Amino acid sequence: MSDLALLLAHVLRTRKKTEQLVAPLSAEDMVVQSMPDASPAKWHLAHTTWFLDRFVLRALGSPAGEASYDYLFNSYYDAVGPRHPRHARGLLTRPSVEEVLAYRRAVDARLADLEGSPRLADGTAIAAALELAAHHEEQHQELLLTDVKHLFAQNPLLPAYASHAAARTALDAAPAEPLAWHVFDGGVKSIGHDPVRATFAFDNEAPRHKVYLARFAIASRLVTEREYLAFVDDGGYERPELWLSEGWTWMRARAPEQRAPAYWHRSATAMSEPARVFTLHGPRELVASAPVCHVSYYEADAYARWAGARLPTEAEWEVAAEASAAAARDVNDLETGHLHPLPARGTSRATPMQMLGDAWEWTASAYAPYPGFRPLEGAFGEYNGKFMVNQMVLRGGSCVTPRGHARTTYRNFFPPSATWQFSGIRLARDA
To answer: Which of 85, 146, 237, 251 gives 20 to 30 Å between its CA and that of 263?
Structure first.
């Protein structure tokens, strides 16, 4: 098979994985939008299909499909045209789930027909679009699961998305790994996408460039639920000296029982009772050694101050991650099926653990362009660059990141108030 045919097969396999992820959902589950930042599962199915329809098939001369889909399922590509408001995606009861699935099948069939087609003879641009489409679909697989989790958490029944006994066993069996510090020498370091070592990266990961770092230390693992509970019980949410001004305002606007990580549940009338955590497997008690997740940047920063540390910069994180990448084992990502961060497994004490998978890690770095950054041409230039304001960088991937999607140069980004993603905390300090 040609490289282009292999890439096409990879895209189609990735799309089948998306449909496997929605298999546990009912039609009702797939229509509801639980908040403006989340999207219905049906919309994810349709948007990822529209992406291929619009940027691959039509680029090859295929006729446009349903005209309204350019409006309904465009996410943020202003160069393509106007779009349905994001906060109102849950009002799109039509087209139905069945019609969206039929749209997916039709587009996938047209993609499969491309194999061996003379239209792919000069396929450099199409190959780039197909590769981006595969990674785009993987991003939406992660978003789909985080959005479903938020949706199910609003239901008083607290339904489980999936049942996985091994996840419970892994949590029960793992003792807390002692926190240690790994020291890294300072000096001039190179960060960013290296085209010699990796074939794909989003445009915001480039160009590779040099930075100067002072000597620093980074924690051996993520902050655990027990450690974060100590911050809560020590009045961490009542001490303004720990909080950024904007974070203090954000936190004080929340009800007392919400002054904890998202999906932690404590009674407002009995705050001394143990908190419970809602997961994609349903609710459970706190697990001392499990990483805390679903914290905002504000909470991560406040916790770090309370712990006498700080958050790493994204350059520090990448340097530490590069050192630990070769020793990484047992990455807890979507492929494991645990669907929640697991305790550090202690597979390599010589380098930091959990750098990939488990939970996205807030950094102290604002999301800004690298020196010499150039966005992609055309509509793809809107993929990352236009969001480089009022966002913070997260690194590392999570327990619902597809296998192979995360890498040490990957720059995720969210507003500092975001909590519905699997976002956790790794500490750093000056050495």
So the answer is: 85
